[in-house]
Design goal:
Mean pLDDT: 77
Number of helices: 20
Distance between the termini: 82 Å
Shape: globular
Amino acid sequence: MESRSSLSSLLSWALFIVALSGLATHSESAPQAFKRDPGHPHWHHSAFLDVRDSVRSDVRRTLHTRAEVPFQVPLEVNVVLIGLNGDGGYRYTVDAPKLEEFLRVSFPSHRPSCFETGEPLDIEHHVVYNAFPAGQPELIALEKALRTAMIPAGTARESDFGREVPLFEVDATAVEPTFQKLHSYIFDIDNGGYSSKENDRPVPTAIFIVNFDKVRMDPRSKEVDLDNMMYSKLTPLTDEDMKKQEGDYIYRYRYNGGGASQVWLSSGRFVVIDLSAGPCTFGKIETEEGSVSHRTLPRIKNMLFPSGFASVSSHTTHDNFMGHLAALVASTVEHVIAPDVRFETVDLTTRLLVPIIVLQNHNRYNIMEKGHNYSINIEAIEAEVRKLVHDDQEVLIIVGSHALHHHEKLAIAVSKAMRGHSLQETKNDGRFHVHTKTYLDGSILKEEMEHSADVLAAGLLEMADPSLSNKFYLRQHWTDESESSTDSVLKHKPLWATYNLKKGKDKKKNKPKKKGDLHPTYGTRVIPVFVLSLADVDPQLMMEDESLVWTSNDVVIVLEHQSPEIPLSYVSETKRRHAIPSQAQRHILAGLASALGGLSAPYEKASHIHERPVVNWLWAAGCHPFGPFSNTSQISQILRDVALRNTIYARVDSALRTIRDTSESVQSFAAQYLKTPLGEPVKGKKNKSTTELWVEKFYKKTTNLPEPFPHELVERLEKYLDVSHN
């Protein structure tokens, strides 16, 4: 009996081990997405690895010539086609090499501009495109994540006059981690060990163009098992299946509760363009510019069945669809990946001081107190600001709260900046009703604030923390009245000193210098943020252009009051967008992003034809603090890269403009003063002017090209390039 019991126990243990091994082998063989095989090849950065020699030749050509051509900078753009390889909606296929070639021929370059000057930068991007499809397992994994995140939200129309179908909304932040997995999987970010501090390592930026199978990921259907479809062969669609590919429902994205869209900017280094979502409509009321409609993004249904479901269209429609995709990619480059620069600022400082000064006309509440909906999170603002500057820059943010009635000049400035304009709106009776709307003019407010330089720049700072004044400011005791000085620290004018420029030179010379004046040191840049916390004001009080923030290159002004939501002239689908004046966190971050990194809103672009910025609301949703369709206090990694790139581009642009101006000055001097002893023209080649012959005679040594630098400097720079390359 004992032997039988021991034998049965051994058999049970054996069966248990076999079962465990079967489970292990089953789990190992279970289909998984984002899984790489051993020995997979690393991602090849064509824009950085293939064109490195051309970049060096561009630098050398800049040293040897003063031709007015922009400096060429390579820019890599990766287009990832998801569900467009015969495995997504309508089983539609896009030829990736053909799209890549079409982009290369149609949009080979892009030259950013500056909003402040209205002129294009002396830098031009040579765009290198990479277009490739994503795999079927990754497509199914994304569809699974999306189906889980869909939440019923009533009904919506398929088109302008289409039928009403069920509507589902997707929080983009819920599916963003899955897209981030795809980004890391494709570009081998995790395995490559790229660090954010390794500035010399190229980090790829991607555009995800998505075409999901809406029938397959229908949240109302419980019969479809997406896990078993990852590596299995998909069944082809019949003509009846093609007509049902819209799934009789609509889904839209909302990033953190912002406006509904089918295009959104992620917190990482990618943007998502979902062709199967929507269609979505949003923009500004009674304004055509930049509005997003049902036909803004191409839809495969409209391409395949332009005249209904009678017959599938011809090859011409496929070419049109390819053109729409290329235009979308080019628009993404212009607005998101390499947008225009907001301010022409060259930041050469090593220290950054951001005093956030709250000026309030009440004592009912304090936005600096934590734990309220209107509270300001200084730690979060500082964390985002540190991501906008280079690693070697020192950042310090201090906070001070002051009563507005204690500063008479500031209270007068706020009162003078109040303006009003008339609005005509139609009511239910069909008539126009005129009413006046009050707003705060930021330009006038800054102009009036410049009269209070001592109080705003040095006084409030020293009252907030006297120890900071010794570190970030230089207290200078003047012992003589001479304009010259031998101090080693360059004496900048105090902040807001631009008002003194309007005075006459005689008045400036007769002005006595006070002992103990505070002057910013050379390596410190100060960008004050003034938060006007007002009570007992117009409930719909805002700043110009229906905003709560006004920004210049050296100051940020934010308006805050405890009024309820303010209706805006912007609409998303069938509902107006509202501004919440009690929440200033997002607007503070938006102003600092523009002032520090020169960031412009993703939906804005400088137009030389219109001589003003134009808008495209397609890029208004996502992870950024700009505009009425955004609702987040974070800045995308793409925009942070743009901010760091803007500081470099501003320096290069300034250097190139200096080179061109110096060269023109030399030529102008030679044309005016250099003459032969007998006053005869200089003899030489017929295709060269007299000025060019004289410049080459006295300015050149060995080369026949007109150099913008002295010859010795060119030789030293070339040696430096050779050493750095090796």
